[in-house]
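From the shared-data thread, chain only:
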Amino acid sequence: MGRRKGGNKSPASLAQKSSSSNGPPEEEEATTTTTMSIAGAEAAATEAETEVAEEAMDERTGSSNLEDSSEYPALIGGDKTSADYYFDSYSHFGIHEVSSYQLSGDVAGSYENSEFISQKFLRIVSTLQEMLKDVVRTKTYQNVIYQNSFLFKNKVVLDVGAGTGILSLFCAKAGAKHVYAIECSQMADMAKEIVQANGFSNVITVLKGKVEEIDLPVAHVDVIISEWMGYFLLFENMLNTVLYARDKWLVNGGVVLPDKASLYLTAIEDAEYKEDKIEFWNSVYGFDMSCIRKQAVMEPLVDTVDQNQIVTNCQLLKTMDISRMAPGDASFTAPFKLVAEQNDYIHALVAYFDVSFTKCHKLMGFSTGPRSKTTHWKQTVLYLEDVLPICKGEALIGSMTVEPNKKNPRDVEIMLKYSLNGQHCQVSRTQYYKMR
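Structure, as tokens:
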């Protein structure tokens, strides 16, 4: 993000800064944008996938970084339809773009000479490599599978959102009786080639289509594995697809991997970035462009946060048990209390998540938090309208409401209510964010 930590502030300096923050300001609105999914490229992906898979299979060391430890304002551009969204995930931030690309018949027939392919496809391959080279992500799954082969040996496994098939390959190598890999995008064709190239065609069956529309050749499966997590954990709402598969095919006593996910919140100082990217629009060469500023605040940022920017404790918002939860449990309102650990300013709140595999011999998983090794999920930054001077021991209290968009359930609506009654700042506000 190119941010620089400003360091601790004295109460006197906070008092100077907070002259405009005394008393509750007028209620403002904010919203969010993003885009996500898990698959959808072609040919050149085979080599990239195979390279990373081979590297991963050669290394058995762990890279888990998990410590045991209603009406929303519209964003410019309007809502997308479900059809627009299904194959357009993560493209907003350039992550997981493999699913956003679908070849038409005309383009597919002449792709060698297509300028569209040469530009778009190469970008997709680059994104695919970024996902596979996310060592925390890929090797955690690999280690879970290889080091807990008792979960997979002679078992029927379902891979939901298989992408290039890397998880299916891991499962097959760990001794699975059969793996059914469901992938809805064009990447399914490449996954079939990858499976064949690695000699697992007799163990892995790739099925192209949506999970909700697929007829499995078997009535039940023993294990469901998926890398369903999106930005802010829930963006794209692929979790509901996993729950659908669980309820339809998983045997009693079957295993879902991962089976636990937790969402956290903390607060950061981020003056330099906010001034450069958001407040910039207040005066551009002497002209008022604050209408753009309003849109900029409405869109939380997916980026890496320096742990030195953290001002408060980290608050657990929600823990989900994927093996038992109902689809509606992904909508929730959670209170938070963020207590300042030093004299400082709060410019934004930051959300991140952990996932756990509790059925293993020992706890395994990873965190996407600022104090852990960086993943491609990074963190989700929600900028506040106010700059909040806060003294050590004072608390920013509030609640966060999370729910899917009514028109497009793969989008996420966030309502943030917060208040601070501090020595130098008294404020109460509601902001809205939308990830789409």
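Confidence is low (pLDDT under 50) at residues 1-13, 15-61, 80-111.
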